[in-house]
């Protein structure tokens, strides 16, 4: 009877989901050549072609479609085994994968992580600062910090903080263009905005209404790029207070209360009692509590 290596099946799933060797390789943090070699190994053991390469990427063959659901069930069980083992680990050592947005990681969380690592030198933190939400169920991360409440099942969630927002411009920009009249939709002004997908966020909907008659100077999927553009005088932007305060910018008066966002922490229920996970969660809660004035300042 032929035996299949779970790692080979895992590589098959990644290619099937992403359609390319490069995308699958990035997901699994391996070389593209490794993906190709693993797929060849699996197909040789199976005695059938499972994925067909086309000009648009890899697609499932009939044989690949026949095994896909079975392999996905194996993946679910393998992840459950991994979570169970992790949850039973009583050591205050090992690694923890944390996912959150990049600006929060850089501007706020890094000092918290530094204090934590000083206290627990046996624990290694792996920071995954990505736009997409990584899956805790699939063990893509152990701890997640996001600006929206988690809705997935089997997660233990906790609200850690509220984040304030403001509208900013450089002094040079204001000298050249004057103060925007938000009652008139900031007509004649230029905006620095995130990508279109982010325009539905509460703070961006608020900003979009206030600046509905302004033009757009720049769009970027990087909040750091937006901050740099505002500092360079390209236009006005809505930015988190923790990111833009103290950066030499002018926070503009709007006459309307800015929305706030909630910061939530989540871990999978299977690992919530693991000592190193509990220690990090408490450190994050305390670290963010002591930095509440930075995250959500009281308006002047």
Automatic annotation (TrEMBL):
Keyword Transmembrane helix attributed: no
SUPFAM superfamilies: Periplasmic binding protein-like II, Winged helix' DNA-binding domain
GO molecular function, one term: DNA-binding transcription factor activity
Signal peptide span: none
Keywords from the named record: DNA-binding, Transcription, Transcription regulation
InterPro entries: LysR-type_TF_proteobact-type (IPR058163), LysR_HTH_N (IPR000847), LysR_subst-bd (IPR005119), WH-like_DNA-bd_sf (IPR036388), WH_DNA-bd_sf (IPR036390)
Gene Ontology biological-process entries: DNA-templated transcription
A Pfam family annotated for this UniProt entry: LysR_substrate
Segments forming domain HTH lysR-type: 4-61
Family: Belongs to the LysR transcriptional regulatory family.
Protein's recorded name: LysR family transcriptional regulator
């Amino acid at each position: 009877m032929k035996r299949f290596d779970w790692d080979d099946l895992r590589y098959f799933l990644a290619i099937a989901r992403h359609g390319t060797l490069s995308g699958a390789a990035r997901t699994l943090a391996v070389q593209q050549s490794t993906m190709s070699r693993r797929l060849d190994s699996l197909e040789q053991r199976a005695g059938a072609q499972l994925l067909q390469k086309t000009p648009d990427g890899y697609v499932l063959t009939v044989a690949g479609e026949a095994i896909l659901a079975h392999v996905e069930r194996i993946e679910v069980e393998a992840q459950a085994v991994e979570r169970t083992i992790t949850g039973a680990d009583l050591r205050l050592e090992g690694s923890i994968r944390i996912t959150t947005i990049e600006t929060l990681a850089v501007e706020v969380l890094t000092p918290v992580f530094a204090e934590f690592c000083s206290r627990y030198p046996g624990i290694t933190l792996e920071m995954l600062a990505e736009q997409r939400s990584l899956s805790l169920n699939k063990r893509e991360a152990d701890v997640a910090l996001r600006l929206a409440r988690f809705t997935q099942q089997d997660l233990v969630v906790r609200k850690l903080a509220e984040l304030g927002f403001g509208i900013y411009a450089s002094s040079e920009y204001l000298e050249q263009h004057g103060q925007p009249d938000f009652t008139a939709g900031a007509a004649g002004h230029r905006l620095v905005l995130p990508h279109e997908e982010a325009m539905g966020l509460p703070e961006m909907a608020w900003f979009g209404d206030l600046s509905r008659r302004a033009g757009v100077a720049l769009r970027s999927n990087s909040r750091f790029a937006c901050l740099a553009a505002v500092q360079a005088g390209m236009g006005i932007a809505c930015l988190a207070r923790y990111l833009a305060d103290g950066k030499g910018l002018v926070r503009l008066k709007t006459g309307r209360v800015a929305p706030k966002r909630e910061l939530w922490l989540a871990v999978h229920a299977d690992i919530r009692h693991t000592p190193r996970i509990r220690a990090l969660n408490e450190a994050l809660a305390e670290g963010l509590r002591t930095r509440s004035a930075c995250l959500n300042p009281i308006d002047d």
